[in-house]
Amino acid sequence: MRHGRLRIGVDVDDVLYVCNQHAIDMLCKDKNYLPLNINDISGWGATSKNALLDERIAYFSKVDFVENQPIIPGAKRFIEQLSKKGDVIFITAVGANCMSARAERLVKDFPMIPERNIMIGARKDLMNLDILLDDGAHNILGSSATYPVLFRRPWNNNITGLLSVNSYSAFLQLVDQINNQRMANFDLSEGGVVCLVGPSGSGKAELVQQLLKDSRFARPVTTTTRAKRSNEGDEYNFISREDFENGQDKGLFLESTVYGGEYYGTSLQEIDKYVKAMKIAVIPVDFCGAITLKAKYPKNCVIAFTHRSRNDVIGNILSKQCPENEKVLRILSLESEYRNEDICDLTVSMAQDAKKAAKELMAQLGLK
Q: Which of 92, 175, 297, 307 is deepest in the core (most CB within 10 A)?
């Protein structure tokens, strides 16, 4: 348990105010372009798949653009709730000519945050924070915050392994998880969800197979855009990236994430059918997905970290049937993934065989 209030840094563009989409809308209107797809933005700066999209960047330094950026629905309520959990500090990078406009907007729209807590500048790495929420992967990768958190957007979908969230509610749940480390209060006696979180190669799949031998457990089918491997059965629903993105737009997935450049998601219907049947849905997910599920099922969801030595994990990753670039991404993300252990509800050791690990986990869950 932490002592004292958390210091929580919050980025502004595309976290509180619409930025990229607003610039695209203005660009299409001014240049009479056909609608451009925000999903084609692959990062901050001139790195998009569509050269026309790069023209949007010019709007970021215009005062009238900053003055009129739409506020993201729910942003005010989000900051109100967040300010009760810690000291919120706005950290935003805008051009010198836009600094006053940005500060005035923040003061007007978020009066619950003191003016002294508005920090304008690009060197976010210099801020002494407990948590940072930012949609810029470069800011998260270079952050000195204890818990840098990536706010998932189309332009950071290629980033793997970082602590991340998809929504305001998930971030609020994550803050609670950080504030109350290892003090989980859960009850799975009438069903629930067990999220298995851990590095690729830590034994999550093997642990799931052991748990499924107990009739109280069930595994929801996960939807993914990656190709089916030769040794896989029906544990995944394989669809195209376009179909997945359409499903996201329609709110089909309760939790979704990106791993190795591919989408993964589980529908509310798929999980609810087991919870309502008083079974325990066991799902291997990254921490982003786990936090989303925790927000949906706060009293009967457990986040369990599967711990295995780095040497064994790397060996397992190298032996997987997946593209070499995906293996590289998984190995590079290990440090970030191991750090998540501290904010999980419990840890199960995978140094032992999966059968013993399943027995240990069920004991920690209070299941006889």
A: 92
